[in-house]
Design a protein that fits this description.
2 domains, globular, single chain, two-stranded antiparallel sheet, mainly alpha
């Protein structure tokens, strides 16, 4: 037990004692602030028809719990899904493999550490909800309206997320993108479970459907007609919202038991993961292609240096661009090539609106690991010092990295850009190209600041989610704006991001 606690403590401290975690915590607080917006805000998060609840203690607590269960569990997954990989990269995993620590003990420690990291994001959000209630809520404050839904709704979902992160990382350890896609499919599938029956509300992993059903029934009884439900960031436009009094609910005993069973299932998932855990063994040996192997055998492993041949110096940026292009493309799996080609065909053949608003951001997102590791790979592979002392590092190597990634991301959007140009829609076409540049600059700047890929991955998913759900203020690639003023703002944003990125790069010392 003592060794388990030591593993949990050490892993948790390693993951939370970083600048990147502080930034992530700040983002979580920003999310928490937006979960229950002020009355005069231009959006709402949970709306039943034209109704939202009066801002009493129950509405604050239950809405915050519902939104936290969905958003923090999903965004939090991107933060905790590298617990085992980090040990493999640092060499700590090989050291652990030589000890008597069992697979289950090690993975259970990682599971608890994952859960504590997610809990460290959840608790400030709950405190933020209490603060917002005293800021613009009404009525008396009841602590149970916050503690009960957060405990029953959020904690089991966080445990399940922590366990799934362990399982997916072990089973699909060679592909982060595949892990993201599979978790997203499971996540969306769980969201689509209809809340119509009591059984579906009991087995809901998020634990939110029983609350949503209660809210919907109260509005239905008030209006005597069925009302549609909207969860997310819903723009009000000219909608005049009506109010109803939500007083919370008494969670039935079967629901409480079901939430406890989800926690047990999470532990069982960790147990299953321990049976297939690789324990940091090298499971595959790369062999050279036959042609290269034959050439190596002919050379015999020896080489000669011709000192009479003059040394040719080439300081152009093109060889660096070629090398960076190979680094971006060489690790791509066959299934990702298929998805990429399918997405580009969809950009060329699907309706213009669908291609621009939905397919393009998804296509860019499935390559998130490429953009996020653009500069962080130097820290992960411990080559940052070699890169820093190279000839004109910022003007040559750093620029080559940005240029290569910009070419790649805009090549993905090329079918849509061509269609827009053929249709004489020049502003959206230019906006798409600028949007690609903005993504690369954002990944570079956040990578330099946090020295980790996680911060960008979380933010980029949020931007993708926002644009798919038509949150127009966060449009960065011209999907919802076609005027010159927007294009000028986007160009200013890109130029400013470029200047800030290069300035920050120049201030980073070699030791960092």
């Amino acid at each position: 037990m003592n060794s388990l606690l030591q593993l949990v403590k050490a892993d948790y401290q390693q993951r939370t004692r970083s600048y990147g975690f502080l930034v992530t915590l700040s983002i979580a607080l920003a999310f928490g602030y937006s979960f229950v917006p002020p009355l005069d805000a231009p959006y709402s998060t949970i709306r039943i028809g034209d109704y939202i609840g009066n801002y009493n203690s129950a509405w604050f607590g239950y809405v915050m719990a519902v939104m936290s269960s969905i958003f923090i569990s999903y965004f939090g997954y991107f933060i905790i899904n590298d617990a085992v990989k980090r040990d493999a990269e640092t060499g700590l995993g090989e050291i652990m493999a030589t000890t008597q620590t069992s697979n289950f003990t090690y993975l259970f420690a990682k599971f608890l550490s994952n859960f504590l990291v997610l809990l460290s994001l959840l608790l400030p959000v709950m405190i933020m909800g209490v603060f917002l209630f005293f800021l613009y809520g009404s009525g008396s404050f009841k602590l149970g309206d916050f503690v009960t839904p957060f405990a029953l709704v959020c904690l089991p979902m966080l445990a399940l997320t922590a366990a799934l992160a362990i399982l997916l990382e072990i089973v699909f350890r060679k592909s982060n993108v595949l892990q993201y896609i599979l978790f997203s499919m499971l996540f969306i599938g769980a969201l689509l479970i209809p809340p119509s029956s009591e059984f579906s509300r009991m087995i809901d992993p998020f634990g939110t459907k029983i609350i949503i059903n209660e809210m919907t029934e109260q509005v239905t009884q008030l209006t005597n007609e069925e009302q549609g439900l909207s969860i997310g960031y819903n723009i009000k436009h000219d909608l005049i919202e009506k109010r109803f009094e939500f007083t919370g609910l008494d969670f039935p005993t079967p629901y409480t038991i079901a939430r406890f069973l989800w926690v047990l299932l999470s532990v069982f998932i960790v147990l299953l993961s321990s049976f297939v855990f690789h324990r940091f063994r090298k499971l595959s040996i790369r062999t050279l292609p036959k042609k290269q192997d034959k050439q190596l055998q002919e050379v015999g492993g020896s080489f000669e240096i011709n000192l009479s041949q003059p040394l040719v110096l080439d300081f152009s940026i093109l060889p660096l661009v070629k090398a960076e292009m190979l680094l971006l493309l060489r690790k791509q799996n066959n299934w990702l090539w298929i998805l990429t080609l399918g997405g580009m065909v969809a950009l060329a053949l699907s309706p213009m609106t669908m291609a621009h608003q939905f397919i393009l951001p998804i296509l860019w997102f499935i390559h998130v690991t490429k953009w996020s590791r653009l500069v962080t790979k130097e820290y992960e592979n411990r080559t940052s010092l070699f890169a820093a002392v190279s000839y004109k590092h910022k003007a040559r190597l750093f620029t080559a990295q940005l240029l290569t990634a910009t070419i790649c991301i805009n090549l993905l959007a090329l079918p849509l850009v061509v269609r827009l140009l053929v249709s004489a829609e020049f502003v959206p076409a230019i906006a798409v190209l600028l949007g690609g540049v903005f993504v690369i600059l954002l990944s570079t700047l956040l990578g330099l600041i946090s020295k980790s890929s996680k911060l960008f991955e979380v933010l980029f998913f949020f931007l993708t989610y926002a644009n798919i759900n038509a949150i127009k203020p966060l449009d960065y690639f011209g999907a919802f704006h076609t005027n010159i003023a927007y294009l000028c703002i986007l160009m200013t944003l890109v130029f400013s991001a470029t200047a800030i990125t290069y300035f920050y790069k120049s201030t980073v010392t070699i030791g960092h």
